[in-house]
Sequence to fold (210 residues):
Amino acid sequence: MSFKIGDEAPNFKAPTTLGEIDFHEWIGDNWAVLFSHPKAFTPVCTTELGYMAGLKNEFDKRNVKIIGLSVDEINDQKKWLNDIKETQGNAVNYPLICDTNKEIANQYGMIHPNASDTLTVRTVFIIGPDKKIKLMLSYPASTGRNFDEILRVVDSLQLTAKHKVATPVNWKQGEDCIIIPSVNDDEAKKSYPNGWKSPKPYIRIVPQPK
Ligand code: BEZ
Fold:
């Protein structure tokens, strides 16, 4: 993988559990979360995919499409869906890419050969409507991810795409934000005529913009 945050997410065509897709066309004008997991019929992955199904409504509200990926055969993926529904209480309501020949996994750096040269690790990519990479994460197979955190990052990304603010540590929707350093005080006063809290000149705290 040679791309980084800010680069275009490589496009691809792929079979999924919900039919063939062209990735960029599938994203359309939405945001997207692409996440890989190691393997069908494994316990941590079962919990992750079930949890994502439960969160889909929250992603929908934010115009974010979600899609999983593994290098499994499509029939294995489809059979596994029954187990996820039965054990996690949520039916998987989003597509799973079947990257059997590992083309996408290699393109996106989802295979970390010193961890496993056959299976994908747990990666997450958040992609904007402009098809640019906004976030990249890699987790080891043994650690299930915190997908609430991905939703939190989406909230931050969507806010900071609209307003010249950044979000501080552990920020959540509705909490105070920080005016970005590239906005000088004169410019900031136009957006924040009531000023800001400033424990240091370079820390300018304002309520979350509407
Ligand atoms: C799991 O999903 O439980 C898992 C998959 C691969 C390696 C370790 C755990």
